[in-house]
Amino acid sequence: MKSLKIDNDGEKILELLEENSRAPLRVIAKLLKSSEGMVHHRIERMKEDGIIERFSIVTNPEKIGIELTVLIQLKISGPDLRRTMDELAAREEVRCVYYISGDYNTLLFCRFRDIKHLNEFLVDILEISSVERSMALPVLKKVKEDFTILRKAPRPATL
Predict the structure, then answer these.
(1) Which residues form the domain of 97?
(2) How far apart are the first and last CA of the chain?
(3) CA distance linking residue 119 with residue 20, whole number of Å
(4) How many percent of the chain have pLDDT more than 90?
(5) From the centroid of its chain, how far is CA 17?
């Protein structure tokens, strides 16, 4: 995948949108000392180039009854690795799927309502023939969780 060059204004726009994807164009333009038209054009161009994939919100999982975050390592064998990873990625509990090196070759970042929900999920995935073994690592305390890419600038008070 070819990476694209982003100048300082582009980075600043991304930082501001990562902090608040609903930030008004006029506020971003004011912070950049630029025009709303330029900011709009830059955002549209970054969408076209695939730099901005979507606009989203951050939900607190505990506030909506999703109590458990678990990292699950899997050893998937055989020719069905990609198919199995795609199948796991389609599960609602699975937030991220990573291909990794080491004793296990797949890492899942998952969220569950409770321990019973986790247990049901583990039983389901262990029934997949290409899954040799698993190791569930429940998160006991979240110290930091930030999936933003650019977080250099302090949060502007105007947003």
Answers:
(1) 61-138
(2) 33
(3) 36
(4) 75
(5) 15
